[in-house]
Design a protein that fits this description.
The protein is of the alpha/beta class and 711 residues long. Helix 15 (524-530) links the parallel strand 22 (511-514) and strand 23. Helix 8 crosses helix 10 (359-386). It has 21 helices and 25 strands.
């Protein structure tokens, strides 16, 4: 790699080398063709050395091209900015306005020495300034007047720390729930928002304070079997499959009778049949929508229209995308990128014509969001009514599907021909290739981080806490070219991203938890902690000797953390104990015979480590003490599930999340990364116990008692 290409990569925020987080840590030198590919995808010319040098100059001179940056993100009591002007011009005045356009009097003082630069024979001056007043937390418009011109920018003033509930000193616990997996006697084969209300009641009765949820965002309308909650078409809105149809005001008892046989058939299937469930719910929602249109003078129709107006452009884009997709998928294969060119941009005349001609269908998609938001808000009202300390803990996926409304609506802000993933780590030794759309660091800042802010804000709605999936993406994201298997890291403005997240946490009164399992940069967790962003700890990751040694004692867990036994991507406790996950990976060709044997040997040692840790913590139930070493072939240790939950509840971490799969001794994984439905039924397993029967189930009662003894 040439010295110039290396310099350009560094200036553009592209890693030329990196280390993974595998059990046997490796270092990588990024291939030159990968560097060139990503630089081109970011808009830089790199075909010749001359073009590379010109691209370097372009980056160096970028700040000198405009008086103000697109946005300044600052912390309270440290509000400064810079201005670039031709050396011959002077600033006449500074102005500051709040979000209601009220003018705020400020005192601006010059700071430091001015910097000068000559570009195209013209001298420019760059001067820093500081606002001496203390400003309230929030967003502002900063403006400068020069002669008869006014230049504006956005100023974001963030607190030093993210939100945390007042008096949050005691340790609390709750559930980690995949909402789709909730098995109730009244739902239509998939968990819904009424089930969520019942979970709130169950939490309140059991003493739980938090309910962790899988991402609830909108999935592909035309392909319901694309069921991964982490592959949404919009992280701004909800998945209509979670609507309880029987709670839609326009739905009638006679409608339920007409579909009773279909519901029964769906509920009797082993796995969740997304296609049948979703299409049945859509038919019923279409019927309800027709009834709304028959009475446009009713209060409900007026509320629906108000919702559409309030949501504005983002809802317009989602509904338009879904309606166009529904029509185009009948004749075009390949998603929105294969549509006629005039339909690939939401602002085009062709899209406007389509919406005008299909207004009722477009509005139907809006209606589904209106009803989903109404029912989710009702669940949040139940949280407040029952007094759950934190309430819903929502999960925000690290990215969005490339064949999505979010990408279609803002394609310029995404790097076009790469997908997000991760290099090897202790849990995924082959790395991961998610194929999710990745924000372009440069374009994101040019748009004042609006796409990032909108996504954060939408998922903090009706939530007491939010889980940032792969939180390392605030600093860097591993991107893989669409035409190859090797990738590298693209870096973001970490300070800006972190401060904006903290700001939105404060404004929305929502705690933030960062999922940081994987390849974590040095000093990253410390930076999160300084901003009061909680970390995520799982039993399987809290090990000594980089995962080869014993389990860390409960008292050594981080305090500002959400902890659990595992995650949806990891084997539940019983599956792990018997090594079924190893056999599954081997049967699917995901590991060699040698790797399988090595994994079983390590698991045998890990099981002994776990038993010893449970002994040391003295958490075995009094009536189910450890009976032996339980070598392979022996039964599942009676009392071990309770002991593990007591062990985790005993931890110093302020929040412990219980996975019901472990309570009911489920031996199958919810999601096996690296596979699709043709190889493994990801995201399709229901809980084995109906929701209504859980509170009186003996296993549930014993595990809750074990937890409450320790917290």
């Amino acid at each position: 790699m040439s010295e110039a290409l290396n310099r350009l990569a560094q200036k553009a925020g592209i890693a030329t080398h990196f280390s993974d987080a595998g059990l046997n840590r490796k270092n990588y030198e990024v291939e030159e063709n990968v560097i060139r590919f990503i630089l081109k995808d970011l808009g830089y010319c790199v075909d010749t050395e001359e073009q590379i040098e010109e691209s370097i100059i372009q980056i160096d001179e970028q700040r000198w091209q405009t008086p103000l940056e697109s946005i300044y993100v600052r912390t309270e009591n440290n509000i400064f900015f810079d201005v670039v002007l031709p050396a011959s011009e002077k600033i006449e005045s500074f102005m500051l306005f709040d979000e209601e356009n009220n003018k705020i009097e400020i005192n601006v003082v010059q700071e430091g020495e001015a910097e000068y630069k000559v570009i195209s024979d013209k001298e420019y001056c760059r001067q820093s300034y500081r606002i001496s007043e203390i400003l309230k937390i929030g967003y502002y418009v900063l403006a400068i007047r020069i002669a008869d011109k006014i230049y504006r920018t956005k100023l974001a003033v963030a607190p030093h720390h993210g939100f945390e509930q007042e008096g949050f000193e005691e340790r609390v616990w709750g559930y980690a729930i995949q909402l789709y997996s909730v098995n109730s006697k009244r739902n239509w084969g998939v968990g819904d928002f009424t089930d969520l209300c019942c979970l709130v009641d169950m939490a309140s009765q059991s003493g739980a304070s938090i309910i962790g949820l899988n991402p609830l965002n909108t999935l592909a309308h035309d392909y319901p079997e694309n069921a991964s909650p982490y592959q949404s078409i919009s992280r701004l809105y909800l998945n209509p499959i979670y609507i309880d149809i029987e709670q839609v005001p326009e739905f009638l008892p006679t409608d339920r009778a007409a579909v009773a046989a279909e519901i029964s058939d769906i509920k009797n299937q082993e796995f969740i049949n997304y296609d049948k469930i979703y299409r049945l719910k859509i038919r019923c929602l279409e019927l309800c929508y027709e009834r709304i249109l028959q009475n446009k003078r009713a209060k409900r129709y007026a509320e629906f229209m108000d919702f559409c107006i309030k949501e504005g452009r983002e809802l317009d884009n989602l509904a338009s995308f879904q309606a166009i997709y529904e029509e185009q998928t009948r004749k075009v294969w390949g998603g929105w990128m294969a549509w006629p060119e005039e339909l690939r941009t939401p602002e085009s005349g062709a899209v406007e014509d389509f919406v005008r001609q299909h207004r009722q269908r477009v509005d139907f998609f809006k209606f589904m969001q209106y009803e989903a938001c109404r029912q989710f808000a009702a669940a949040q009202s139940r949280v407040k009514e029952k007094g759950l300390k934190i309430g819903f803990y929502r999960d925000l996926a690290v990215g969005v599907g490339k064949d999505s409304a979010e990408f279609w609506s803002n394609k310029e802000v995404f790097i076009p021909h790469v997908g997000a993933g991760a290099p090897p780590d202790a849990f995924f030794p082959c790395g991961q290739k998610w194929g999710l759309g990745c924000f372009s660091p440069r374009e994101l800042k040019e748009r004042q981080y609006e796409p990032f802010i909108n996504v954060i804000r939408a998922n903090m709605k009706n939530a007491g806490a939010i889980r940032m999936d792969h939180v390392m993406s605030l600093m860097r994201l591993f991107v893989i070219p669409d035409d190859g298997s090797k990738g590298t890291y693209v870096y973001y403005n970490f300070e800006d991203m972190l401060n904006l997240l903290t700001l939105e946490s404060y404004l929305n009164q929502c705690m933030v938890v960062g999922e940081s399992i994987g390849n974590v940069p040095d000093g990253f967790l410390e930076a999160l902690r300084a901003h009061n962003i909680y970390s995520l700890s799982v039993l399987w990751a809290e090990r000594s000797d980089a995962g080869w040694g014993g389990f860390i004692a409960p008292q050594h867990y981080p305090s500002a953390a959400v902890t659990s036994v595992g995650t949806h991507d990891m084997p539940p406790l019983k599956m792990w104990w018997f090594g079924y996950d190893i056999e599954l990976s081997y049967s699917l060709g995901m590991m060699s015979t040698e790797d399988k044997i090595r994994s079983y040997h390590k698991r045998e040692a890990d099981r002994k480590h776990l038993l010893d840790s449970l002994d040391a913590a003295q958490v075995w139930p009094q009536d189910c003490k450890r009976q032996g070493d339980y070598i392979y072939g022996e039964s599942y240790p009676e009392g071990m599930v309770e002991a593990v939950h007591a062990y985790m509840a005993k931890s110093s971490s302020k929040i412990f999340l219980l996975q019901l799969e472990d309570v009911f001794e489920v031996a199958e994984q919810q999601n096996l990364p690296g596979t699709d439905i043709d190889r493994y039924p990801n995201w399709r397993r229901r809980l084995p116990i109906p929701l209504e029967d859980i509170p009186t189930n003996e296993k549930y009662i014993r595990n809750i008692e074990a937890i409450k003894r320790e917290r």
